[in-house]
Amino acid sequence: MSQPLLEVTSLRKSYGALAVTNDVSLKVFPGQIHAIIGPNGAGKTTLISQLSGQLAPDSGEVRYDGEVITHLDMAGRVRRGLARSFQLTRILPGLSVLENVAIAVQARTGSSFRFWQVAAQERALNDEAMACLTEVGLGPQAMRLARTLSHGEKRQLEIAIALATKPRLLLLDEPLAGTGPEEAEILIALMLRLKSRVTMMLIEHDMSAVFQLADFISVLVYGEIVAGGTAEDIRNHPKVREAYLGEEEEGT
Amino acid sequence: MTQTPSQMPAKGDPRIRIALCIFACLAIVPPLLSLVGLDYYTSVVTRMMIYAIAALSLDLILGYGALVSFGHAAFFGIGAYAALFLQTRGITDFFLHLAGASLAATAFALVTGAIALRTRGVYFIMISLAFGQMAFFFFISLSAFGGDDGMSLSRATLFGQELLRSEVTLFYLVLVILVVIFGFLCRLTRSRFGRVLIGTREDSLRMEAIGYRIMPYQMAAYVISAVICAIAGVLIANQLQYVSPTLSSWQRSGEFIIMVVLGGVGNLVGALAGALLTIGLEEALARFSEHWKLWFGMLLLAVVLFSPGGLTRLVERVSGRITGKGDDR
Ligand SMILES: Nc1ncnc2c1ncn2[C@@H]1O[C@H](COP(=O)(O)OP(=O)(O)OP(=O)(O)O)[C@@H](O)[C@H]1O
Ligand SMILES: [Mg+2]
Questions:
Q1: Residue A98, domain extent
Q2: Which of A72, A116, A157 to mutate to test binding with chain B, by most B CBs within 10 Å of its CB?
Q3: Domain range spanning residue B219?
Q4: A152, A34: one domain
């Protein structure tokens, strides 16, 4: 296999006595969708936050594309191509859908210390933003105010914003959370389409989506990776059945 | 669901038209007043416009950057004291006063901003208040400038001439500066920089996740805002021909906030209208009743309760109902 795009080594983070990330090591290879599953409170979001630079780990190392980025801030990581989405949607509600994306294009094309030229009239920004919106299927909504979008559309917008940063690795924190079946289908199709271009780390509770999308699955329980493998491996892993799938199996 | 996606105010935006109407009305105030023999009121309207400049400066950081500065009057005072200082040193040129005030305001903003901008929300309010009070007590300690009584000064010279002795000349100078600053801020808030500033207001974590380091943008906005407020300070020193620490009291900072909130934050026209209205009402109500502050407080409460977006939102909603466009938010 090729060099990993992301390599996490012995990452640790505790809140007081609670070890939320407990000696986590994993590798994400280019072109893969690497899913992280685990029960509520397992530390999935906390892990993503450390990978994206929002939170500093207590110890351990994060290596991206061969470079140690453990102490790089969020903006620095985004510029290197490491983008994230949030579990609770974070968009710029008072701006138009197009501007939400254009502002991300603007971040990596030229200085933003320009005080006179009207940004909304910059063709290059708008065209590229529009391309991202079209890609996620939000083209027709471009002129709407972002806060007026439906929940599923906001999820799509968040991915469009991330795409506009030209990511090589996308960290997606429960992109399907709170969406209805139709909205989820749109988002799953979108992730499948993106797969050829962008490597993804996907946190998701929806197991059918995970089994459908993921090339590799890591199972996180109480901050520890207890198992890792393909969908097939994970389905049959005794520890996973016990810790995570147990409830589901009982139901059927 | 039709909604203009621009970062207001845009071309053809009703708010720009309102602003142009306001400026046009202001321009004919002096001849009109002298026609009816009420020349005295010219200086009242001058004062209204000076406060409008200060309110616009606050709207830039409060309305567009969600930085609620409760110490903004510090910059008002800094501008006024800079003018006084230069005047006592024999430097009477108005433009040099503007330059001196801008330098002093920039220095104070860089130092206080470096600390205050590390905080958010209520903490920013408290720290900006503390810095405002620091400036206030500093001015009180200046015994050479009259301590807490303050000191009178003569008006600055323009191109070596004592043109500003005339209330009408001063009026038009202030009007021109007001229009220029308004136009500048309109462009600024629609520029790349303005867009980033608005982004930090909407969700600063989202902006960081897009790849922005937001502190430099906030600092730049803070400094620009400080300089504009200091310019208003130079003007008020000239208008009143008197400078005292009360120019930068915390009540004054509160008054600036009230003006912006009353008019509606984050669209410039609101701040403009809010300031004109606040000072205008102050004059009118003070004549009409000793308890004008109570009446004014009740009016403010009504606006905040019934039209949270301030007067600009109220106007929009009413005109929207008339044109049948309806409410969009
Ligand atoms: N700032 C914090 N201070 C203290 N404890 C925290 C903090 N943030 C998270 N935790 C705790 O860390 C644990 C892991 O939280 P995290 O949000 O990473 O879980 P998660 O796997 O994303 O859960 P979910 O599936 O519900 O999103 C939880 O027990 C949570 O209460
Ligand atoms: Mg989570």
A1: 93-166
A2: A116
A3: 14-249
A4: no
- Domain identity same for A29 and A69: yes
Please check whether residues A26 and A144 belong to one and the same domain.
no
Distance CA B275, CA B52 (A): 5
Q: Are B54 and B229 in contact (CB under 8 A)?
A: yes
Least Cα distance to B112 among B70, B144, B82, B151 occurs for: B70
Q: CA separation (Å) from B273 to A61, A72, B116, B289?
A: 55, 45, 29, 23
If one residue of A15, A24, A204, A205 were mutated to test the ligand 1 pocket, choosing by the most ligand atoms within 8 A of its CB, it would be: A15
Query: Would you say residue A88 lies in a domain?
Result: no
Which atom, in ligand 1's list, is nearest to the CA of A48? 18
**String of b and e for B266-304 (b: at least 16 CB within 10 Å)?**
bbbbbbbbbbbbbbebbbebeeeeeebeeebeeeeeebe
Assess whether A151 and A43 both reside in one domain.
no
Q: What are A138-160's pLDDT values in tens digits?
A: 999 999 999 999 999 999 999 99
Domain count, chain A: 2
Q: Does A173 reside within a domain? A: yes
Distance of CA B108 to the CA centre of its chain: 17
pTM of the model: 0.91
Ramachandran class of B264: left when φ > 0, alpha when ψ lies in -120 to 50, beta otherwise: left
B255: which residues sit within 8 A by CB, 6+ positions away?
Answer: B73, B278
Query: How does pLDDT run across A53-95, given as a tens digit for each residue?
Result: 999 999 999 999 999 999 999 999 999 999 999 999 999 999 9
Whether B84 shows a pLDDT value over 50: the answer reads yes
Interchain contact A161–B (C-beta under 8 A): yes
Please compute the mean of the pLDDT values over residues A26-52 and round it to a whole number: 94
**Structural domains in chain B (count):** 1
Name residue A118's beta-bridge partners.
B191
Whether B274 maps to a domain, the answer reads no
State how far Cα B9 lies from the chain centre.
17
Task: Say whether both A70 and A173 belong to one domain.
Answer: yes
Residue A86 belongs to a domain: no
| Residue B261 lies inside a defined structural domain of this protein | no
- CATH code of residue A238: 3.40.50.300
Token pair listed for B147: 């301590």
